[in-house]
Each structure stands twice: as C-alpha cells, then as structure tokens.
Amino acid sequence: MADIWRGTLAPRRVWNLSEHLPEDAALAASLAGGPEHRGWTLQTYLLAHLLNSVRFADANNVRVNGGKLKSDPKPVQTPQLKTERPALNLSRHPLAQPLPDKYIRG
Predict the structure, then answer these.
(1) If pLDDT is split at 50, 70 and 90, which confidence band does 95 have?
(2) b/e 36-57 (16+ beta carbons within 10 angstroms → b)
(3) Roughly how many angstroms between the first and final C-alpha of the chain, as a whole number?
C-alpha cells in the first residue's frame, strides 16, 4: 500500500478501497482483531455455529431417547470479534504526507 499515493488517488478513495477489501485480507484481519481472524469470513463463522448447533442437537436427541454419551460435544472454537473497529491511522507511516487543503472539509 506504500505505492498507492502518487498524487492522483484521493485519500477518500484509498479509505473506500481499504474498507471494501475481502474479509480474509490481511488488513481486514488486523482490523478484526489480529492474525487469528485471517480466513474467518462471515460464512465460516456461520458454518462453525451451524456445526455447533447440529452437534448439540444430536447430543440432545440421544439424551432424550434414553441414550448415554461418553462425553459432551466440544464446540468449534471461533476467534472473538472486536465490537468496534479501530480508526485506520496511517499518520506514522514513513511515506505519510499531510492532506492537501482541497480534501479537508471545513
């Protein structure tokens, strides 16, 4: 991302592009909470919760019908999501430049 700013791409456009990166992109993962979120898209979270629901429903059906389980089902562990996204701060980047006045709203 260091080579993006060449004077023709508005900062708002850069922000818009960074907000709409794929969910498994490195920037999206770091904003979600860290590298353990890499590859955890909305679909994989939903699939993990669906798998957990099926496991517990199956265990419940066994118990209701008088069966005994060797052990309780273990849920699929998912990384915890941050409740709010931090602001993207690139001001300390070595190639950072101040915004031109035409991009600053008054």
Answers:
(1) confident
(2) ebbebeeeebeeeeeebeeeee
(3) 28
Total length of the chain: 106
Check: CB of residue 5 under 8 Å from CB of residue 14: yes
pLDDT of 33 strictly over 70:
no
Split at pLDDT 50, 70, 90, the class of 49 is very high
pLDDT of residue 101: 80
Query: Which of 76, 28, 31 lies closest to 52, judged by CA?
Result: 76
Task: Give the burial class of 23: count Cβ atoms within 10 A of its Cβ; 0-12 exposed, 13-18 middle, 19 or more buried.
Answer: middle
User: How buried is residue 11: exposed, middle or buried, by Cβ count under 10 Å (0-12/13-18/19+)?
Assistant: middle
